[in-house]
Write a structure and sequence with these properties.
This protein has about 120 residues and is mostly beta strands. It has one domain (about 5-115): Jelly Rolls, CATH 2.60.120.10. The chain is about 0% helix and about 50% strand. The chain contains no helices and ten strands. The chain has strands spanning about 10-15, 25-30, 35-45, 50-55, 60-70, 75-80, 85, 90-95, 100-110, 115. The strands form two sheets. Strands 1, 2, 3, 5, 6, 7, 8 and 9 form an eight-stranded antiparallel beta sheet that branches. The model has no long low-confidence stretch (mean pLDDT about 95).
């Protein structure tokens, strides 16, 4: 068994062209998992990722702030305690609202393929 405290895991810069701005950090929560990718992503105000999809399910667990999770059909505001299940292949994006930082844990299968669908 391994127990991890989010508050003790260091935040590392997470530069990636999928984000709309540079104010993003990541915390690797269980780097030794053989099955899952489990990380916290911290977005600065107004920063989001671009439309993308995954080839497996993705779970987002909102840990702080106010964010938006959007598909081509809807946009939903989410806050601490909300849990989002995104289906494989669903075109979506998620990130902070203009007036709030935003953090979520994301869980996906290790080796899941992300396809960026927006420039």
């Amino acid at each position: 068994m391994k127990i991890v405290s989010i508050h003790k895991v260091s935040k590392e810069p997470f530069p990636n062209p999928i984000f709309t701005g540079p104010d993003v950090t990541r915390q690797l929560l269980v780097p030794d998992s053989k099955e899952f990718s489990v990380n916290v992503v911290n977005f600065g105000k107004g920063v989001r990722n671009k439309f993308h999809s995954h080839d497996t399910e993705q779970v987002l667990i909102v840990t702080s702030g106010k964010g938006v999770v959007a598909t081509e059909k809807e946009e939903r505001v989410v806050t601490e305690g909300d849990i989002v299940l995104i289906a494989p292949g669903e075109k979506h994006w998620h990130g902070a609202t203009p007036d709030s930082d935003f953090s979520h844990i994301y869980v996906s299968r290790l080796g899941s393929v992300l396809t960026r669908l927006e420039e």
